Amino acid sequence: MKQHINILLIAFLIANIASANDPHIPSNWTEGYVNANGIRIHYWRTGGDKPPLIMAHGYSDDGLCWTAIAKELNEEYDVILPDARGFGLTDPPSQSEPADVQVEDLAGFIKELQLEKPIMLGHSMGSSSVAWFSARYPDVPKASILVDPRLVSRTPEESAARNSSPIETRVAAILKRNNTSYEELFDFQKERNPHYSFTEIHFWVLSKQLYHPNTAYRNSDARPTMTELFAKTTCPTLILKADDQGELRKENKEVAAVLKDGQLVHVEGARHSVHRDQKDRFLGALNAFLENL
C-alpha cells in the first residue's frame, strides 16, 4: 500500500513539474510575445532596471533551457530568454527560409522590446546567430558571448555527410521525440549525462517535446564563415569553447585571433554543452568577462 502511494506521489509530482505552472521558474519572471520579422516570438524575462542580457539557445532547445544559468545572473542583469523560430512557443518556420532568418528575428526582437546595447549570449545554433548579428549590426550589442560555436568551417565532405539523411527521416525523428514521454526523455538524458542538474535535464526534456519538424529544413552550412564574421565584429567578444585538443584547438585560436577585441577560452573538461558540462568553470570565465565590460 505504501509503495502504491509513493508511486502515485511521484507521478503527481512529475505531472505538475511538466505543467505550464512550472515551480522551477522563479515567480518574478515574466513571459510574453512580440511580433517581429513576420512571426510571433515568445520569451521569458527576469526583469528589473538592469543591463539587458539576451540568451539565445541551441538547436532543439528553447529559452528556458538557460534557466539554471539565468538564475545565476538575474541579480545583476535583466536576462531575456527568447525561443528561436520553430522552438519552444515561438511560431514555426516555413520549409524555405533564408539562412539569416534568425539574425533578423533577433534584430526585430530587440527593436520591439526597445533594448539599448544588450549583451548577447548564444550557444551552438544561438552562437551562430549572435555572431552573425554582431557582424551585421556592430553598433547594437554591448558585448557578444559565443558558447561553443563552430569556428572552423566544415569541409565539403563533412557537410555532405551531415546532410545525407533524407529530410523525411529528419522530420520523422523530430516527431518521434515530440511524442516521447517526459519520463523516457528524462531517463535517457540522465543516463547519458548523470552530472547534469535536475533543472538542466527538466527543461531539456520539455524543449524536446515542443520543437517543430520544420526546423529540420534549416541549412546551417549556408552562413558566412566565422572568419568573415569576426572581421566585421567590433564589440568585445568572449568565446567559451569545448575542451578541443590538438590541431582543432590550434585552428580555433587562429580564427578567434581575427577578432578586434576577443577572448577565447577552452573550458577544461567541457564538451559541446559547455554550460551544462562545466557550470562553475563556465560561470567563472563568463563573470570575469562581464565584470570588465
Give a summary of the structure in a few sentences.
By secondary structure, the chain is of the alpha/beta class. It contains twelve helices and eight strands.
Structural notes for this entry:
By secondary structure, this protein is an alpha/beta fold. The chain has one domain: Rossmann fold (3-Layer(aba) Sandwich), CATH 3.40.50. About 40% of the residues lie in helices and about 15% in strands. The protein contains twelve helices and eight strands. It has helices at about 1-15, 65-75, 100-115, 125-135, 155-160, 165-180, 180-190, 200-210, 225-230, 245-255, 275, 280-290, and strands at about 30-35, 40-45, 50-55, 80, 120-125, 145, 235-240, 260-265. An eight-stranded mixed beta sheet has the order 1-2-4-3-5-6-7-8, sandwiched between helices. Strand 3, helix 2 and strand 4 form a beta-alpha-beta unit. Helix 3 (about 100-115) crosses helix 4. Mean pLDDT is about 95; it is low at about 1-20.
